[in-house]
Amino acid sequence: MNILEMEPIATVRRHHAVEHATVTILTEHDPSLQLIGRSDTTGFYIYGNVAHDALNDAARRALARLQNGESALAIHPRCGTNLVVAGLLTAVAAVLAVGRKPRLDKIPNVILATTFAAFVAQPLGAVLQERVTTSPDVRGARIVGIRESQMGQIKVQHVDIAWGDRS
Fold first, then answer.
1. 10: domain range?
2. Do residues 126 and 86 both lie within one domain?
3. Is the CB of residue 39 less than 8 Å from the CB of residue 109?
4. Distance between CA 124 and CA 160 in Å, rounded?
C-alpha cells in the first residue's frame, strides 16, 4: 500500500484539499482576506478574521464542489507546500552556484540560479500538492461543526470534518 493512502496521512491530505477549496471560496468573495490554514486529522484550522457563518458556508460549498468533481480546488497557489519547495530549491541552487570556494564574482551566478529555481518551484509546488499533500477524494465527508477560539489578536476556527462510508 502507498504510504500516502495510509492513515492518518490520507485523512490529513483530504482535509488539506477541503481547506484549500474553502480558502479559495472565501477569497473569491473577498480578495483582501488574509488567512492561514492548517489541516489535521479532525479537519482544519483557519487563522484570520472571517465570520463564523461565512466560514461555515464556504466550507460546506467547498466540500460539495470537491464531491462534485472540482478537484482543481484542492490546489492553492499560496499553499505552504509551494513555500517549502521554493525554499528548498533556491537553497540548493545557491549552494551549487557558490560551490566549494565562495567568491564575490559568483554572485551573478547565485542570482541566476536562485531565480531559475524559484521559477521552477511554482509548477513543481502545484504538482506536489496534487500528488502528495492533498487528495480531492472527499466522498463520505461532512462538515459537522466549527469551533472558535482566540490566539492573542488572531481569530482561530477549526472546521470539524466527519467521515461516513468511503465507498
1. 3-75+134-163
2. yes
3. no
4. 30
pTM: 0.91
Q: What is the mean pLDDT of the chain?
A: 95
Grid cell in block for residue 97: 552556484
63 phi and psi angles, rounded to 5 deg:
-60, -45
Residue type at 59 in one-letter notation = A
d(CA 139, CA 116): 39
95 and 58 belong to one structural domain: no
Whether 160 and 51 have beta carbons less than 8 Å apart is answered as no
CATH of the domain at 63: 3.30.980
- What confidence score (pLDDT) does residue 46 get? 98
Burial of 159 (0-12, 13-18, 19+ CB in 10 A): buried
Q: Are residues 94 and 158 in the same domain?
A: no
Query: What total number of domains does the chain contain?
Result: 2
Q: Which pLDDT tens digit goes with each residue over 86-100? A: 999 999 999 999 999
Mind giving me the DSSP string for 65-132? HHHTT-GGGG--TT-HHHHHHHHHHHHHHHHHHH-SS--GGGHHHHHHHHHHHHHHHHHHHHHHIIII
Is the same domain home to 8 and 69?
yes
Residues 138 and 126 in one domain: no
